[in-house]
Amino acid sequence: MLGIRRFKGNFLKGNRVDLFVNGEEFFPQLQKRIEQAEHEIFIETFILANDKVGELLKEALIDAAKRGVWVSITADSWGSFYLDEEYILDLTDAGVVFQIYDPQPSWYRGRPKLFRRLHRKLAVIDGRYGFIGGINLCHDHMMDFGPGGKQDYAVEVQGPVVKDMRQLCKSYVRDADDKHLGETLDNLDNPPVRGPSEIAFVSRDNRRHRSNIEKAYIDAIHAAKHRVWIANAYFFPGYRLLSALRKAARRGVDVRIILQGDPDIPFSLMVARTVYEKMIRAKIQVYEFRDRPLHAKIAIIDDEWSTIGSSNLDPLSLAFNLEANIIVKCQEFNTQLAEKITYLKQRSNLIETNWLKRRRWWLVIKDFLMYHALRHYPAVGGLFPAHLPKIRELKARVETASGDSLDEDLREEFPESHNARKVLAAEDYDEVNEVEKTR
Of 163, 209, 295, 395, which one is the catalytic site residue? Predict the structure, then answer.
């Protein structure tokens, strides 16, 4: 594995993990934990929408804030660009700390930058319950949305790993404070719930943790003995990951890749197909899921190793966006994910060698050129400065005061949280320059 260091995750024993399929299973459980919250709620999401899912979430968070629970939401400015201002004001008026990750400048009214997005989907409640997966907080992750309803997965975890999840969320919110947990703070080190799973929480950013998720995949694939099953929405892996998959298949490992056949972003299928020939000739089984858009980010290797989270296997996730996965070592959870991947396979079309032979010659040339152009994309993008995105809370007529997280260790561990912006209500000041004096 020349050029990439081995993955060294902080695996913690004694965790419980519960799997949820689609919004129908996930949203009620998240809602339940919010309604039961007593001290603190962290939420990070790529997409937050003002639809039936978002409305129920808003009501639950407002109720929590009114009964004294400290609540924060951090939503990405690109993914949540169409969120109504009224929705945000309803939350902030109730005392919720609402943040937009890397907002566009005040003078620019268009949609902000696509790259280096906060793509994580996390929730941590009372330091006891952690949620992670690929499901955004919007209606299109439910089957009653219609044909465009996304197939996806998320988990709730309890145990020592929740503390690591909370540390990441905490680093992005200046107002976060361990005092919010009160007497339950001791539970962070000695949680009351214990389970059979050994779990590592793994995040990626553009400073300290650039390739942790990719390393975890590559190390596990190199060690695979009999199976590597992956279901992923957006697939265009780097050279090392693709090479690891091909080598595994050639040494007799059952390698199955399930991708979108009916994608919400058609270009993603065009890009994924540029690597089909390389995989199929290496005896990798490639499937396209046809029921509906596939939004999953799950994988199992052998009988114990599993992963689930927000990270796709494409350049945006592996080289630019802020992502988070968990790596689970647990035979029971591995078996559960295997059943879900088998379900997807049964509703997918196998891409066979004959499919390659039937392709027109100009499509083969197009795939060749696209592959070799796109595979250098992360390296070229990396030449540009990795801006330090700002987090800005939104309220009516506000200014923001700059300032780092109050926790020095967190500032060092997660430097992309350094430009967190705390809202100052403009109506509290007679003149704008008085706001400036407070910075």
Answer: 295
433: in domain: no
**Could you tell me if residue 65 is inside a domain?**
yes
Question: Is 126 assigned a catalytic role?
Answer: yes
Q: Beta strands of 81-239 (E only): which ranges?
A: 97-101, 122-125, 129-133, 153-158, 197-204, 227-232
Q: What is the CA radius of gyration of the chain?
A: 22
State which amino acid sits at residue 284.
I
Q: Do 161 and 222 belong together in one domain?
A: no
Is the Cβ–Cβ distance between 287 and 351 less than 8 Å?
A: yes
Reported as a pLDDT band with limits 50, 70 and 90, residue 419 is: very low
| Mean pLDDT estimate for the chain | 83
My answer on whether 151 and 230 are in the same domain is no
pLDDT tens per residue across span 63-103: 999 999 999 999 988 888 888 888 888 898 899 988 888 77
Which candidate in 39, 119, 139, 215 is catalytic? Answer: 119
Q: Are residues 230 and 262 in the same domain?
A: yes
Which pair of tokens denotes residue 143? 């089957």
| Residue 350, C-beta contacts closer than 8 angstroms, at least 6 positions apart | 285, 286, 287
Final residue before a domain boundary, out of 367, 382, 397: 382
Contact 422, 174 (CB under 8 A): yes
For the cut 70, the answer to whether the pLDDT of residue 106 exceeds it is no
Catalytic residue among 76, 102, 126, 314: 126
Is 406 part of a structural domain of the chain? no
Which residue is catalytic, options 121, 141, 150, 418?
Answer: 121
Q: Are residues 97 and 235 in the same domain?
A: no
CATH number at residue 92: 3.30.870.10
- What residue numbers bound the domain in which 36 lies? 13-204
- CA nearest 325: which of 343, 335, 337? 337
Any catalytic annotation for residue 66? no
Active-site residue flag, 119:
yes
| CB-CB contact of 340 with 308 (8 Å) | no
Number of folded domains in the chain?
Answer: 2
Residue 418 falls within a domain, yes or no? no
Annotated catalytic residue 247 = no
CA distance 15 to 193: 8
Do 199 and 238 lie in one domain? The reply is no
**pTM reported for the whole predicted model:** 0.87
Task: Considering the candidates 302, 303, 345, 404, report the single residue annotated as catalytic.
Answer: 302
